Amino acid sequence: MNLNKVLIAGRLTADPVLKTTPQGQSVATFSIATNSTWTDKSGARKEEVEYHNIVVWGRQAETSAQFLTKGSVALVEGRLKTRSWQNQQGQTVKTTEIIADRVQFGQRAGGGGGMAPRGGNVDQPAHDDFGSGPSSLEEEALPQIDIDEEDIKPEDLPF
Known about the structure:
Layout: E1 6-12, E2 17-20, E3 26-39, E4 45-57, H1 59-67, E5 73-86, E6 92-105
Parallel strand pairs: 4-6
Antiparallel strand pairs: 1-3, 1-5, 2-3, 3-4, 5-6
């Protein structure tokens, strides 16, 4: 059995770059930083930052470029892909990227709340990072539906 699955959450290091292939396909690229912290043997706190190159295709590339900015939190699910090419000096260069299957937007940098597109204001409610913790959305009461059981007949059910 083989499995090539990546799931990372971090902050963008720069605004996404959106391009279009000659065939008209949208592709966005950006980098996400993730941090690891630990305590070494002497008790000193250590931190390490990893940078991940992300490639997003299609409509998701367009929405990523529209809504994500430097510092935004994003959750990326995808697969690893290594590609290589010859540079101008004739050396082989390799890079490993995450080809995103899904990008989920988190809270904007600076705690600004809602996800308005870059350069515009959209009246959308603020939300929390990936559904964890308290949200600024107001809880909506679910409507109460009263059905008399004698009104339901087995022959009226569609299954």
